[in-house]
Specification:
mainly alpha, 66 residues
């Protein structure tokens, strides 16, 4: 499905940006994605595509808190 393919490209691009970002920018990106993850339609339809990004952000957030 075209929407998922487009979103996958976006996810790959965002992961690349994230890995090169400063700590503050990473924090901002995680906060933005948290809001997206709470949107029910996004969660259901695109969860599998967004998972790599969400997992990366969650891991970093856990390490920051820990």
């Amino acid at each position: 499905d075209d929407a998922k393919a487009g979103l996958k490209l976006l996810v790959d691009e965002e992961l690349k940006k994230y890995s090169e970002a400063s700590e503050y920018d990473r924090f901002s990106m995680r906060r933005r994605y948290k809001m997206w993850a709470l949107m029910p339609i996004l969660s259901k339809h695109f969860r599998d595509v967004l998972n790599p990004l969400i997992e990366r952000f969650q891991t970093d957030e856990d390490e920051t808190k820990g």
